[in-house]
Give the backbone structure.
Amino acid sequence: MGDHQSGEYLRTGAPPASSVPYHSEDGRESSSKVAQYHGDSSSLKQTNGLGNGQHHSHKIHKEKVIAIARVWNEVESKRKRTILAGQFPRYLYFVIIYLIALQHQKSAEPYFELRSSLSDLFVTSKYIDPMTKVTKSFEDISTVEDVWNWLENGFLPSFYELYWSNGEPKDDYYRTVLQQQNRIANGFRLTQRRSALNQDCVLSGKYGSFLPYCYSDLGVDALVGAVDTSDFGPYYNKAKYHYMNNYSSGIVDSGYVVELRSTLNDTAKKIAELKADRWIAEATRWVRVDFAVINPSLSLLGQAELIIQLSVAGQARPEFRASIVKTEQYLDTTRDYIQIVLEVLVLVGVLMYIIGDVKDMCMLGVSAYYADPWNVLGSLQMMLFLIDSITWLVIIVDPVRRGLTVDLGPATPNAAQSRDVTRDAITYSGTSPSLAASVFTMRSYFCIQGLTLLATVLRLLKYMMAVSCLSALVETMVLMQGTLVQFGTVIMVSNTAFAYMGYVLFGDNMPEFHTWDQAFFTLFATLLGEGINYAQLYESNPQGAGIFYVPFVCLYSMIIVHLVVALIVEAYQVQQSQRSRPVSGWRQFKDGLFRRFKPLRKYQYGPKGAKRYNPGGGADGVGAKGYYEEPDNEALYEALHDLLDWTLPGAADVEVTADELFLGRPGATGEVVIQGLKAKQLGPDLVDFIFRRFDFCTRWQDPPPAEPEFMDLLRELQRQVRVLTDAHALCQRKLDAVIAGQTM
């Protein structure tokens, strides 16, 4: 339908050339009678300059009434879908650019490959325990003795790869290269953290003399709690090892540190010395072996951390971490130039969306604007984008990577090499580099990006409502938004209670419940079909298994799950009862394209009997060559939006005839319930179009009450006469009796 011609059509009221049967939206021919309104008998005479007072012939459906509220809902729904359809390509274009830019920023594959390479070399690789002759790996560490055996027999041979696979010694550069690609930045270092003796722990008076030493457990990588910072050492030097306070861009990396940058033999001797000094003792809570590498092929810096946590219960828990960042955030490559352009486009798009949102907010008001939950989601999305942008700027100016220095080895004039390349090092403030601060910022950035992606996808659902065949699920979710909040609250409260219950009953025997947060997420996994079963609970606590399992299953499986299904079905039924008539996505796309581009309108097919405009000057009317010309949804919206007060009780049930839609309908007290299209200077042909276009909203008028049959009237008259006759006879007898008594 032409956007520019529709308003003119509503104002002129030019009638169609003929009256023919019309088709409803689904293409079926209507069988309703078509009447002609002529002269004063039709009450649809054009006046006030809209037809020069002349009478016109119109197709008006006198025997039908139309549910005007349903027509309004259809028009408003189509208008909203039209607006969303216009916004959707822009938003989709923005989302595509954003996703490509985010993929360029992350490039997860090389990060994963470098991490896997270091893990394969130091975590899963095997060595032979010299005491037990058993094959072990880093993951098998369970005692302090295992720590030393792994350092001497597992870590050092892998860290110092001095020979090629054919037995030849490596060149100078490759003596400090792992897996033939990753050069070691500056040797490796050992770090430990210790808990203070007899602090934050209670010695029982009864058992205090039995073992008068206690240590408290430490949290957050042994940085929180009663941390011991005093010097310690062997009997011959009690202050041999000192606590060092290290800070890397705000990240605490303190502890007792031993730097090991020498050759294999010197390093082996130093480790043997540490072992003899009982460097790892009963006060040790946390031990770490870490080193940094650089991969020039991938332009990546990596820091590997092999950590052993020693609990106060005597348990050793090995853990591997890898921190990987790019050597420079932007390199002189085509890929990085493309990334910069994409990031600028995303930032421009965000600013444009923010400006548009601010304009809408100023026009509607803050309260009215945020009454729509989609606007709340949009503002949240834009706020997350701004936080992302600020965090990314922090990553670009990362002080850790900018503070790294390359220290080349000393000159060797008497050797073939100009310098001793084996003593090259990459340092930060004179020590081995730590990438913890950079990785923390990077991970924070991508965590925020995860929330941004979630908001972006949820907002994409809004534009799915533009396609009627895809909008059912989204509209159902919108109807359920209040119910979903209530359901989520119930789930969180009940899951919290059961998590505490599981922690109390099974925390001492099952790793799934050994902490409250672990128990909480274990129960969530159980809801999805994973997690724990009754046999595992019974094995851990036979008395408490039934107390926990039966209420859990009854509440979730028998009540909450079925309740959720019922709520979804109810919301879906409500949505189906409220939704407009479904239209195929192809038809929406085709009609929208035709309306957008005027030369294509001649290929558009409207309802049968629709007017076509002939731009060549020929006769207008049905069958004329040209494009389809009828009022569009925007014009119908302007015509109907104030036809009556849609907020009044009973407005949704109002049905009107063609006369009432054109002239209006007064209320019982003289109030105008329906304003009528004539008061808006709109022609009667619009009434015809509304009845024809929204035929699915019409029904036949109720027939007048049936007149009683003539014979029924005669029978009723006979009955009344008989009653009167009987009454007259009775009166006559009484009068006769009275007269007879007086005569006697």
Remarks:
- Residues 68-106 form the longest helix (39 residues).
- Residues 86 and 466 are 9 Å apart (CA to CA).
